[in-house]
Amino acid sequence: MRLIPSFTVFLLLLFFTAYASAQDTLKITFGSCNNQDKPQHLWDDILSDVPDIWVWLGDNIYGEGQDAEGLRRLYLRQKQHPDYEKLLATAFITGIWDDHDYGVNDGGKHFLYKRESQKEFLDFLAVSANDHRRTQKGIYTVHWLDQKSGIKVRLILLDTRYFRDDAIRTKDGYTPNEKGSILGKEQWSWLEKELKENKAEITLFASGIQVIPAEHRFEKWSNFPNERKKLFNLIRKYKVAHPIILSGDRHIAEISRIEWKRHTILEVTSSSLTHSYGTNTFEPNAYRVGKLINVDNYGLLQVWKENDQVVYKVQLKGEGGVILQEFKE
């Protein structure tokens, strides 16, 4: 019998441990605010993370004022970006929209061409002809994500444009709309049903606008305070395990956390892929964990198990793959 040298055994164990770890970790990347006319310099870094999933968080192109043909042309330009083409070939792509790809700045339910925008958006994501989003109003949906981690991860994609009532705008921002809705009656009914039946160990919510932050003067869920409370109450009511909100829109990145009736909710905002708000060096957010990030960025969420316990790590990353902030739980 031929014996294998102990050092060789050590190397083999190291290799298989690393291989198993790589196979058992689910990698989800995400980002927003991607102007097709600006340099897109983060795709190679995203590709280097070898993600299983990419989630668009809105403003995936800048096409407000465009008709359907114009949106189609801009989406095609994005799909033909060489590095994005590589991501299309290796990862599952999904996502939501925000106002600039919806078709009108700060737009809501009164946008006349929202059905045309919906078709172009779904075509961009290559959504199949028999998918329910092809016939329903709005782009909301849910995905069970790759199960290779052995963890049940659910991604709930929310449409914060198609049904949204008018925001009450002032010269200094917005006045809270106490009676208005963001999601609309149909989407709320759908969402409650999904949460009632939800058995996920980690549930991700994708929102085009921020949910937890309440102090800045831009678009956010707290401009419709009852809608924000309703979402938090549903998460608490159905005891959603490890709820994590993914949001975009703001041209900054940050991590926020709120304790809602003894239930912890985390939000990771990743924005912008191409044109961050570099002069924004301070902005109040009582729920912020860590720092405000004002350079181009994307998000990476990794999920795995340690000793049969669910573990996840969120990183906000910049050019060159540099880690700008990290949160682990």
From TrEMBL:
Species assigned in the record: Algivirga pacifica
Pfam families attached to this UniProt entry: PhoD
Keyword Hydrolase: no
Gene3D superfamilies, per the entry: PhoD-like phosphatase (3.60.21.70)
Residues making up the signal peptide according to the UniProt record: 1-22
Keywords, alphabetical: Signal
Protein name stated in the entry: PhoD-like phosphatase metallophosphatase domain-containing protein
CDD domains in UniProt: MPP_PhoD
Positions of the PhoD-like phosphatase metallophosphatase domain: 41-281
InterPro entries, alphabetized: Metallo-depent_PP-like, PhoD-like_MPP, PhoD-like_sf
